[in-house]
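Batch manifest, entry 17 of 40.
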Amino acid sequence: MAAAPRVAVVGTGTMGAMTLWQLARRGVTAVGYDRWAPGHAFGGAGGETRLFRSAYAEGPEYVPLLAASLLEWRALEAESRLGLLDLTRGLMVGRPDSRFMRGVLASVTENDLPHEVLTGRQARGRFPETVVTDDEIAVLDERSGVLRAEVSVSAAARKAVDRGAELRTGDRVVAVEPGPDGVTVVTASGGRDRFDRIVVAAGAWSNRIDGIDLPRLDVQSIAVHWYPVRHPERFTPDRFPFVCRDAGVDFCVWPTADGATVKVGLAAGLEHLASADDLDQRMPDELVPVVDEYVRRYVPDAVPAAVRHAVQVDAWTADHDFIVDTADDDRIVVLAGFSGHGFKMSPVIGRAAADLALDGATSLPVARFRADRFARNPTLR
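Output type: structure tokens
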């Protein structure tokens, strides 16, 4: 019997930590590389919490992957003995003819998800903490909730180590070099180590690694915000479903870990960056009143003056779909371009990456994320 391959995971942020855990669950010798410790605040996983949405505005084809991911989240919870995903439900709000709501309605109907469709009046009566106008509808998704972001990443990495994986932090990977006997990981300090397979999961830094050819990634800084509420008891996870609405841009509000605020996300990048290393984690002064106005308009019980902001970095593909694929050398698997909405699917993406690294294929529904779609479609280049 052939020995199991030795696998490197370059980047132990969201996708890398989950991949390392999935590899370690299979008894594979795996080594994770990162400049920072898992759960750091620089990548897309910062900010304490992220949303798990099943009524997926991005399209019904994502829902089977989300269903598989939900099972993986529960597996990580059982193994880590931590509560990571709280199914608070989710309320999706918008005009029924908007692209956002068409995607939501298609997701719940085509996949037979447990849900309710409410008129504006019905939604206001049941959920007075948010604003729903008479020309809008709301879809209440029973299979959505809130994830503990950094805790989840660090939990996956910790369980991977408990199962025998190794973490090497404090040094940056600068290149991967395929050769006849394996693929070599090269670090900034001059370290070199050869592996049978490599998974590159470097997030917004993916294009900084020599030896892999990726489609263009649009690196952007993103921000989230915390607003105090006048009646915190109305915004607890057991009472307040998170709310996402079509407000020109996607505007989401959800419960927080501190019990005194709500967290707000506005799906709009702050700045396009030449490199993720150019990230400035200071909140731009000119954006503050913009977000305050959205809160004033749509969350009447919140005080429209944020008490906290956080700025991270992420990378978008041209079509806002992911890249989950082998590279030109099939010993290298690439996970990149999660475009601001990949966190909720991270444990199942990690499972798919482990499949691709070990078997060269996966039964999971990730074929739409192949990198060659950009070469086949000139409008995406």
